[in-house]
Amino acid sequence: MASDAPVAQTACDTLVKLHGNAPPENADVIVALGGDGFMLKTLHEAVDLALPVYGMNRGTVGFLMNEYHEDGLLARLEAAEEEIINPLSMTAMDRDGAVHKALAINEVSLLRAGPQAARLKISVDGRQRLAELVCDGALVSTPAGSTAYNYSAHGPILPIGSDVLALTAIAAFRPRRWQGALLPSGAKVRFDVLEADKRPVMADADSISCPDIQWVEIQTEPSIRHKILFDPGHGLEERLISEQFT
């Protein structure tokens, strides 16, 4: 499978000529050609098939991808190491009362959708933890997604086996120095949007967006297991450690 980028389509044509192809329902493994965004899309689409996904980078960053090589693909697949990732589930209610659900492998983020800063109340496992966060937004990240938007927002990089989530503020104005929190992976995080009519907020789960939200609940979904394949010595744990020394 390949993204629409010309370089990914060319790679796909080359590999299909070498190895053939099959529909996902008849496959043992999916080889995804593209960038991290395409990898996330492929993982979401493959979850019901319970298939592992081996990515090769034909995009930009490629944090979730292996290096692209035309030769030796079958041997690389046989030697690949599997990482299991549990996504986040997002449940959000908008101002019209409609409830939206989505899954996120990287993070669920809340972002102001107007000229004024958002005002958010944060609760964890039913207990209010922050009565008011005035900010451009906030996010909850998995360890696998901690080097993406979370890291850009100055959140911590989480080891892949740490069983924690990162709750990170985006451009916090009040409390000005509040950077966020580390939470157990089983925690349920709830954001209530204060003054939602005056200060609109959108929620985003791996690019699935919900506008004009009133509240959002986020928690790990342990029943869903995404399988990612990496070349030996280049798995997520090594990548997350290496990222902290670059």
Automatic annotation (TrEMBL):
Look up the domain of life of the source: Bacteria
Name the Gene Ontology molecular function terms of this record.
Answer: kinase activity
Where does the chain cross the membrane? none
Does the record carry Nucleus as a key word? no
Name the keywords, alphabetized: Kinase, NAD, NADP, Transferase
Q: Which reaction does it catalyse?
A: NAD(+) + ATP = ADP + NADP(+) + H(+)
Matching entries from NCBIfam families are given as: PRK04761.1
| Identification of the protein by name | NAD kinase
Q: Which organism is it from?
A: Pseudophaeobacter arcticus
Upper lineage: Bacteria, Pseudomonadati, Pseudomonadota, Alphaproteobacteria, Rhodobacterales
